Amino acid sequence: MLRKQKVYIALRELCKDITLQDIEEGFPGFDASTVGSKAGVNRNNTSKELNILFTEGRVIKVPGRPVYFIDRNKIEELLGSKIKDEDLRLDSIKELFKRETERAEGIADGRNAFDKIIGAHGSLKIPIEQAKAAVLYPPMGLHTLLIGPTGVGKTTFAEMMYQYAVETGRLRENAPFTIFNCSEYADNPQLLLSQLFGYVKGAFTGADKDKPGLVEKTDGGLLLLDEIHRLTPEGQEMLFLLIDRGIYRRLGETENVRKANILLVGATTENLDSSLLRTFLRRIPMVIKLPSLSERPLSERLRLIKQFFKDEVKRVQVPIRVFKDVIKAFLLYECKGNIGQLRGDIQLTCARGFLEYKTYNRKTIDVDVKLLPDYVYEGLLNSKENRDEIVNLLQLDNKKFYTFSNFAGEDFSTVDDYSISEDLYKEIGKKWNIYTQKGYSQKQIREIINSQIEGYFKKLLNRGVSQAETPGYEELFKVVSPRVVNAVEVALKVAEQKLKREFGRQVIFGLSMHIGTLLERLREGRVCYNTQINQIALNNPREFHAARLVRKVLEEELEIEIPKEEIGFISMFLYAASSKDHHKNKNIGVIVLAHGKNTASSMAEVANSLLGTQHAKAIDMPLDERVEDVLKTTIELVKQINNGKGVLLLVDMGSLVAFAEIITKKTGIKTFAVEMVSTPMVIEAVRKSLLPEMTLEQLVEDIQQISPYIGRLVTENVKNKASIVEPRTIITTCLTGEGTAVKLAELLRKSLPLINEYNIQIRHLNAEKKKDLKIKKEDILAVIGTINLDIPGVPFIPVDEIIIGDGFKRLEKIISGMTVSFKNYQPSEFNVITKILSDTLVFLNPNKAYELVDQSFQYLIESLKVKECRELKIKYIFHNSCMLERVIKGEKLPYKNIDSLKNTKRELYSIIKKAMTVLEENFGVEIPDTEIGYIMDLVDTH
Description:
Layout: H1 3-15, H2 20-24, H3 32-39, H4 43-55, E1 59-62, E2 68-71, H5 72-79, H6 93-104, H7 125-136, E3 144-147, H8 154-167, E4 177-181, H9 189-197, E5 198-199, E6 211-212, H10 214-217, E7 222-226, H11 233-245, E8 247-248, E9 258-259, E10 263-268, H12 272-275, H13 278-281, E11 286-289, H14 298-316, E12 320-323, H15 324-332, H16 338-359, E13 365-367, H17 374-377, H18 387-394, E14 401-404, H19 422-437, H20 442-460, H21 473-477, H22 482-499, H23 505-524, H24 533-537, H25 541-558, H26 566-581, E15 589-595, H27 599-611, E16 616-621, H28 627-641, E17 647-651, H29 658-667, E18 671-674, H30 679-689, H31 696-706, H32 710-722, E19 728-733, H33 739-751, H34 754-757, E20 760-765, E21 780-785, E22 796-798, H35 799-803, H36 807-816, H37 829-840, H38 846-864, H39 870-888, H40 898-904, H41 906-915, H42 917-923, H43 929-940
Parallel strand pairs: 3-10, 3-11, 4-7, 7-10, 12-13, 15-16, 15-17, 17-18, 19-20, 19-21, 21-22
Antiparallel strand pairs: 1-2, 5-6, 8-9, 12-14
Helix pairs in contact: 1-3, 1-4, 3-4, 7-8, 14-16, 16-19, 16-20, 19-20, 22-23, 22-25, 25-26, 27-30, 28-29, 30-31, 37-38, 38-39, 38-41, 38-42, 39-43, 41-43
């Protein structure tokens, strides 16, 4: 390796960990002695090679005593832009950053209008060069088309073209700048053309006098035709004369010709070939494409985000403190409406923060993640993909939040027609005072005003692509707050996971309207329930359990208390919605085939009546009817009811089992038969056939397991339960005897109805308290958790088997004493763990907890240089999630001899302490050594 290369590699290694904060604090670079020591080369030769590298443009040089050097690539990486060769020799690195920042933000002296746009020297460099060429082209510039999706800033870009034309003298200083949106008159072509070109008296009905058009008013200036694709072919043709020869006629004129000298700029989101005449396109030589937000670098997006927060500070005249997770979320969420939606979402979040500021009389507007719309918050879940870039941009290791407090300064405009009205903030303050005087509670006031904020922003962003913009939602928003709809959508997602069903938009609409009405009734005190409603709903236990979760989510999302009686209404609603939506799903067909005039019909009728469906079909087979005729009827019915998942035949005699094979061969439709049909079997078969995830093979296996013993199993269960007098015990364990063990006990009670039915108690403890256990081992059913108490004859089920595996099935088998056949099933680890966490955590977001604790775990195993162990990972995630809630609430667990443990296992303590950093920063807590002691024990046991 050449000496020069060794020196350069050494400098690059030294520069690897430099941060923006280092530069801001005056970091000068590295001298030749430091670099030489790293490279193993003497100082004089190192100095010589560094100067050669400087002349080659590979390093930056800072003259002085001593002379300092720094890697050019590293500085460009931190800047997010290229450095000019003439800037490689400078007085200080800090001065370079200051100059580059001023240049990038367009505040340096003598710059042109385009420099005001964020990205002028980055993603917008080529579009701006095109625009400058169009403006400067003699004599009056080139007519231009701006293309790009909604929200990229086409109107603002056209305005910058106008300002640049004025600055360069192509347009006079007071030249007109006119914006006309063609879509506003698209349904009335005659009115559209009259607006553009004007009209003469008598040109059409109602034209009682001459009127000039926008072309005439814009003579000598720039005319922007927004959504130009909505211009009719006739309108495009009328522009031909104006573009080609600078002449036009008003509507109704036949002989008179008028002159106008304008620069025409069109803007469209559409495909040019499909929306505009080719003859028209040929007359507009310059086409400029503006990039979407997703096509622009994160460094530009960060500057946009900061600028929009600065804009809000100027508007409300109150400092805004934005926490780093909020910045991360805005950097990473899917912003389909581009810059327009980004600004609108930031304004919406600030408006919510302003309401909190008024509510709690704070000194600053604090913008934390709880104020973010859900679709913005989801951006945090993508942080792993861009972690290194985000760290460089935000310097996450050094800042917890950003404060924007400059109320003065030049207004900075980068987007189109999405500005928030200053009156909104005044209106919030005004209404706050009115409702306070009326005696409304703070919760009620926040609920009312939040709904108004949501409605305002829905209207504001109706041109962009918002999260709820789906055909039909506009009508719903007229009667229900978008905040309620958003909360209902989140809650129904939880219900879908619990019930393994999908709910359509109609269900969202129905429940949203119900909750919207409920909020009104709660505010007015008009709440009255039939006390039997929940007892009725318990007839549908799965829906009832899901409804409890829905109520909990709605309370959290809407920050209200919902009466417990609503659980009954919601569960009945979920059951009705599920039944109503069954026809939309591909379900397994069910046909009952039995000898006798009404045997099959009777069983099918009972099943359909009890389940509220018409899914079960019946074919009665009188004893005198020919088998061939019955087979023909069955084939036709199978064809009729099959929708892709096959058909199950429930038959009363073995001879009819052969029908299934014959039908499959003749029709190609997968058909199976189960014999010895009974009414309970039909009910169970129909119920399971309606489940979206059920397959025909699984259904046959399930039904065969209970046939013909279904009645006997129920009877046996009743006998088993009736014989239980003394309670039996399940023990849950963890290192502390609290935390995970307590949450695991709660999870078992929620998820297993058998716990109550079989008179089972649950105790939670740690290994040290085993000696205090005053229970006969014969009365202990199982030990579940992270620690095996090694009680002879008592089965142990690890926590990971409960979460990902067959732990629940195994426990059901132990409790009931039944032999249960089941298959191993491995669902997504993330989905299952976050689902369980959502049931166990009280206030932490389960997705966020999982993501961050998993990051901590990955750092841990990498530092310990061990392979990932699923059992350890699950224990680690659950223990630390519960621990975080405990620390946030200020509940610290004691740990005996923690100092001794730290001294004897210093390396492990240090690694775990660093692994906790990501949790401490994101949750704003300091994890005490006593808690780290328990984590050390957890890791040590593996």
